[in-house]
Structure formats: structure tokens, C-alpha cells
What does this fold into?
Amino acid sequence: MATHVEPLTPPNLEQLCEGICTVHWTRNDTAQYVINATPKGPSQQFFSLLQARARTAGYTIWMRADTRNPASVEVVFVAGVPPDAATRWLLASVLLFATILSCLACGALYRGVDVFAHPTHILEGWPFAATLLGILATHEMGHYIVGRWRGAPVSLPYFIPLPPPLSFTGTLGAVIVQREPMRDRRMLLDVGLAGPFAGLLVAVPLLIYGLVNSPVGPVPTSGYIQEGNSAFYLLSKFLVFGKMLPYNGMDVQLNDVAFAAWIGLLVTMFNLLPIGQLDGGHAAYAVFGAKSIYLAYGAIAFCLLLGIFVDNTWLVWGMIATLSNPRHPAPFDDVTTIGWRRTVLAILALLVLLFLLTPAPMQPVPAIPGISG
It folds into this structure.
């Protein structure tokens, strides 16, 4: 049985639009009210003024381009204003504590400590846990601090624990809940790229420090996992050791800090993929708008191809990206462009992705019976 929906009562357009735009036509679409108008100033300034007035009147608005007239825009009014969400400090704290424990456990196992038999030795995993969580926390706080500074509707970061034996990292990273759409594409780019850029400021020096304190030795003959090489990782090893590794049966034996930093860079690479709600997806939508969906589909196909022919880790990443919805939601203001400075930042993010791209992240080399590594 169909539910009857009353038409939306038109807002007081004369009062809302006074002095900031010229209204050409209006349309009542039952659940929303649409106007076509020409702003009397820059689109960003017009939207900010109209949004403030509309929210005072109890309406939420979206602005989109008029494809038939570039000088005009369409503004959609929807009754109601998103409520302010409470900060969930307790949930964030509990998840962070659980993630610290799971990362400590993975770090201890990496050192050869059986934390299941000796749980009191879990603190031996602190170099790994401190490095990895330092990178991830800096990444998430980059999003959070820039988001709050720009007035974005972002929550505290919620870390996701994943203890061994389910994971060798101890965590699936963290998420920041976006309570409503971003205001415009500029905010989308600023908040989206603040995370990976902030994380890199911690990950790069920690990787170099870890490599400096890691020995170079013979590669085991079997029964080990070979970490993948990106262009940046190869260059880092060359700068530290003066040669390309692995080479002639020799490779760096990563200590706790170097391995955790390598994982941090791998997570940064994944987040920069131009798909949906990933950081790269935010940047792609900021630059290309709704057309960014084609980049998302291309990136998912890229994940599938690498997963089939190179490393099945990419199949997992492709599945996660697909299930999380590759189509990026539009911001409230989908008209204001990002400008050339932010375009340069987006290009820089693409270059970072290419330098961190790791075709074969984790290559297990099975143990051969009768041969010890």
C-alpha cells in the first residue's frame, strides 16, 4: 500500500534569496523544493549565505550545477536540519585500548614471544605497536583536526582491533564517521588528504630509522613472508644500504619499527586509491565530481587484475572497496570548484600513490620439508 506524502511547504524564498541571487523558476517535487537561480557573487559565498538562512528556517539545502546554463545553479531544499551528534568518548576510548592490546600482541609475536602461553610478555611488542599506532593515529588526527578547523561534520577516530591470529597487524585501522555530507569540494579535499599527508610525516622517518637499525642478511630458503617493494621502499633501502635489495640472496631483515612503518605506508597506499569513501576517493570527487565514479570502477578493476595475476591481497582490498560503495556522495555545494592550489595537492597525492604502489604486498614462501630457513 502506497504511503501518501504531503507536498513540501515552500520556504519563504523572497526572504532567503534577498540580495544574493536572482530566482528564475521554482518547482515543488513533493519531498523537496527546487529553485533555479543565478548567484550575485561567487558560488561559495552565495551557498554559505543561503545555507545559513535555510538552516535558520529549518531547511537543509544542496546546490548543483545547471547543465543547461553555466551561469545558473539549482538549489534543492529539504525540510529538516541534521541534529548535532554527541561525541562518543567512551566508545572511542574502549576501541583504542583494545587496539593497543591487539597491536602489542602482534608485535610480541613478531619478536618470537608466544603471548598466548605468556600473556604477561605482551609489552615486548611495544616498538611495533607504538610505531604502527603512531602512524595510524597521526593519520586519523590529521583528518580530525583539519575537519574541525574547517567546520566539517567529523567524529572522533574509532580504531578497529583485530587481534592475532586473525591479523598480523593487530588492527584494521580506524574510521571517522561523517555525520552529514561535506559542505563543498574544497572541504572534501582538505579533510580527505590531511590524513595521509600527516601520516607520512611520521611513517617516513620511522621507516628510515627502522632500516638504519635493521641488519642485512641472507634471505631464508623457505618458510617466510617476503614484504613487497614499492618505488619509495626500494629507494629508501638504496639510500640506507647503498644497494638495491633484495639482491643476490641478500635482503634487509626488518626490525619491529621498520616492519610497522612498512605496514603504515601500505595502509596509506590503500587509502589513496580513488574509490568511494577512501581518502583518494574524496580527492577524486573533489577534482572530477560525479565523473569520479569511472575512476573508482577503474581502480576496482585494477585491484581485481592484480589480485588474480600478482597477489590475492588485492582481491580483499577490491572487495572491501566495492562493498563500501564506490560511488562517492555529493557535498552540499557541488558547484564550487577547488582552484589550482588544491588541484596541485590532488596531483601530489596521485604521485604519492604511485610511489607507494606495492604490486605484491605479501608473498608467502612456503616451507620446504627437510629444509630449515
User: Anything to note?
Assistant: The chain has two domains: 13-79, 89-365. Residues 1-6, 368-373 have pLDDT under 50 and may be disordered. The longest helix spans residues 185-212. The radius of gyration is 25 Å.
